[in-house]
Amino acid sequence: MKSTLECFYNLSCMIELDRHFDLSLGSSFNFSNLNEILNPPNETIETIINKLMVDSWISNISFSSYYNTCSPSSSTVQIIKLSLSKYKDLLKDHSYSLQYSCSHISIPYETFLSIEPHFHDLCSSLFISDEWIHYIYGEGHLSHRFSFDDYHYSAPEQFLSLSSLCKLSQEKLLSENLLIEQIEIILNRLQSTTSKSFLNILNLIRETIGSNMVMSAWSTNWEYIPQSALSADSTSYTASVSYGECNCGLSFKCTQSSGDMMSGCYPLESILQTKLYCFYDQNCIDSNGNFTSLNMSTLKKSQFNLNSTIESILNNLMIEKYKNNLSYENYFKQCQQLSCSYSYIKTHDVTQTIISLISLYGGLVIITRCLAIIFVKIYQSKKNRINSEAPQQNI
Q1: For 70-104, how does the pLDDT look when each residue is reduced to its tens digit (9 = 90+)?
Q2: pLDDT by residue (tens digit) across 243-252?
Q3: Is 294 a member of any domain?
Q4: Domain co-membership, 163 together with 203
Q5: Which H, E and C letters describe the chain, residue by residue?
Q6: What is the pLDDT of residue 170?
Q7: Could you tell me the residue range of the domain that residue 10 belongs to?
Q8: pTM recorded for the entire structure
């Protein structure tokens, strides 16, 4: 193994070596010596064996041959600086595999999304204005002009409450930061949670005032009992007011009809239980015609009807509908895409399909034959066992 082949690189040495053989070739010796340029003469036999007797490797790489042999079934394409129109075209053909990466991790929603709420007509009508409230207040002294269970007695306070509710609902909504991850889902959640948050605060105030039986400034829930001028007792006593069979001492939500409006323990509770009908009837809201009733035609586009109460409208924050303006083009610009990639599956031609079906059929035939042979052998084995046991039983 440690020997070298130096002698085979020298022709004189090779001839001398031939003379020592029993069957020397002599003058017939016609072998040529090895080429020193290709391999070093002092290379040992062990080194040559370690190289697997391979002098050199000639590599011929053909990617086209590799691709044809591989025959890939799918491919991924990456595009840099894609336009919106091209992106939409790719989205039509490769909607399931199209992936789009942005250079900005976060995008402000205000750059491509705006939401404009459309409030109920009541919140933009004259019935929440100071002019209307002054008009129904008139000359004052309402306690001398109307009884406590007459709607007109607490009407100014009812419409003041309505005006405050409209303002509160608008402020509550517009102060929300409209941050959304999935536009439709988060918008619906925002609309729901915003109204719930507002109503929870309002109901807490209502329950706190009502449960503590705070006396209304209009004396609509409690009234003072007149005392005799000759009485030495300076203590003023109060008695709860009743509306129908409901007593304000037991429930602060007592109300009763007063024409087409409502009167009750608190002006706020009265206006909340009032139906919309009166606001659309000129004779009901103002028979003098100084203030025009709401236009009946607007009800066609409204989600509320004449029998809807103010409370039902308030539960929606006085909002008829939301107008969402979503600009995908602005979103695309703000994204400032880095790259876009999509994958597609190579479809097989008719010949390949037929070959695949034949191969599948051939495989099924072979499997079926193997299973049939196994079942037959099992059956024959059981049959032979039964036949061998039968003579023993006869004996």
Answers
A1: 776 677 777 777 777 877 787 787 776 777 666 66
A2: 999 999 999 9
A3: yes
A4: yes
A5: CCCECHHHHCHHHHHHHHHCCCCCCHHHCCCCCCCCCCCCCCCEHHHHHHCCCCCCCCCCCCHHHHHHHHCCCEEEEEEECCCHHHHHHHHHHCCCCCEEEECCCCCCHHHCEEEEEEECHHHHCHHHCHHHHHHHHCCCCHHHHCCCCCHHHHHHHHHHHHHHHHHHHHHHHHCCCCCCCCHHHHHHHHHHHHHHHHHHHHHHHHHHHHHCCCCCCCCCCEEECCCCCCCCCCCCCEEECEECCEECCCCCCCEEEECCEEEECCHHHHHHCCEHHHHHCHHHHCCCCCCCCCCHHHHHHCCCCCCCEHHHHHCCCCEEEEEEEECHHHHHHHHCEEEEEEEEECCCCHHHHHHHHHHHHHHHHHHHHHHHHHHHHHHHHHHHHHHHHHHHHHC
A6: 65
A7: 6-50
A8: 0.46
